[in-house]
């Protein structure tokens, strides 16, 4: 989002304080409404830093550097092999 300097965010949260779900590739943080703010790993890699709560209108800004993110999956081009007996 190009105008996120104009967004009204509830808080700024360090990525280290968020919970990461590796299966869903999703960072979450508790929202005061009882739900959780969410931002995907894809969005963070795409330089988005705004996490939204799906239940209310609150948003937080995630403070991070690209080095804080999990490494991208290896794309070595090696196909899995199967062994036959």
UniProtKB/TrEMBL annotation:
InterPro entries xrefs: DPH3/4-like, DPH_MB_dom, DPH_MB_sf
Reactions it catalyzes: [3Fe-4S](1+)-[protein] + Fe(2+)-[Dph3] = [3Fe-4S](0)-[protein] + Fe(3+)-[Dph3]; 2 [3Fe-4S](0)-[protein] + 2 Fe(2+)-[Dph3] + NADH = 2 [4Fe-4S](1+)-[protein] + 2 [Dph3] + NAD(+) + H(+)
Claim: RNA-binding is one of the keywords in the record: no
Named cofactor requirement(s): Fe(2+)
PROSITE patterns listed in its UniProt record: DPH_MB
Coiled-coil portions: none
Pfam families documented for this protein: Zn_ribbon_CSL
Keyword annotations of the record: Iron, Metal-binding
One of the protein's GO biological processes: protein histidyl modification to diphthamide
GO molecular function: metal ion binding
All copies of domain DPH-type MB, residue ranges: 9-65
Pathway linked to the protein: Protein modification; peptidyl-diphthamide biosynthesis
Highest taxon in the source lineage: Eukaryota
Family that this chain belongs to: Belongs to the DPH3 family.
Protein name: Diphthamide biosynthesis protein 3
Organism expressing this protein natively: Lomentospora prolificans
Lineage of the species this protein comes from: Eukaryota, Fungi, Dikarya, Ascomycota, Pezizomycotina
């Amino acid at each position: 989002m190009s105008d996120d300097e104009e967004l009204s965010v509830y808080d700024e949260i360090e990525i280290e304080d968020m919970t990461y779900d590796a299966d869903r590739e999703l960072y979450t943080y508790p929202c005061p409404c009882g739900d959780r703010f969410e931002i995907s790993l894809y969005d963070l890699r795409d330089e988005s830093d705004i996490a939204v709560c799906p239940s209310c209108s609150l948003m937080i800004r995630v403070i991070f550097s690209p080095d804080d993110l999990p490494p991208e999956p290896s794309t070595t081009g090696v196909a899995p092999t199967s062994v036959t007996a």
